[in-house]
């Protein structure tokens, strides 16, 4: 993967972060060379604290010394800076606004369900019910398209794909089947994973499951 001119791109991330997977996919799809710096979130580096002093969390994209935080903002920045390489956001203002709306829906509705599952703050069946209901809404938005970006992967696909690998982890921990409950999204996910830039940027569901168990043990959730 080649980079433009003297661009220096660094990504502060962690393997299992659903939010860090987004810029990884975007940079890979656009063929942008970058340096990945994995963070230990139990012992955050001085670089992370300096680059994201407000939230102290990953991902942080550092482009020529300037930091950019929050995954969806980072995606938009990547798309604007390298706009000629594999455009992610639609050019039509309405479609672009819709993509942003649904990305926000994902980060509110799907995230809350997975967070409740991770920390066991709600009954598993209740979480599953709510999760499936929200995922069915997203299935409806996909319609008969191959991707949310239309004929190829786009901004909204990346927003949801980072959760898709977590859904496969959720399957291991509860009575839930992506294929059975949300077949259309299951097919979409498999289609996206055929893209090497996507598949190599997403965390292994087994690794996420191990992280989940370790996190629960650390906070004393059985």
From the structure above, extract its key features.
alpha+beta, globular, Glutaredoxin, 222 residues, Glutathione S-transferase Yfyf (Class Pi), Chain A, domain 2, single chain, 4 strands, 2 domains, four-stranded mixed sheet
Tally the structural domains: 2
User: Taking strands numbered 1, 2, ... along the chain, how are they ordered across the largest sheet?
Assistant: 2-1-3-4
What are the segments in which pLDDT stays under 50 over at least 5 consecutive residues?
none
| Estimated share of beta-strand residues | 5-15%
Helix content: 55-70%
Instruction: Output the radius of gyration.
Output: 17 Å
CATH class of the largest domain: Mainly Alpha
User: How is the main sheet built?
Assistant: 4 strands, mixed
What's the architecture of the largest domain in CATH terms? Up-down Bundle
Q: Per CATH, what is the topology of the largest domain?
A: Glutathione S-transferase Yfyf (Class Pi), Chain A, domain 2
Q: Structural class of the secondary structure composition? A: alpha+beta
What is the typical, i.e. mean, pLDDT?
94
- Helix-strand sequence: EHEHEEHHHHHHHH
Count every helix, treating DSSP H or I runs of 4 or more residues as helices. 10
The coarse overall form would be globular
**Terminal residue distance:** 44 Å
Total count of strands: 4
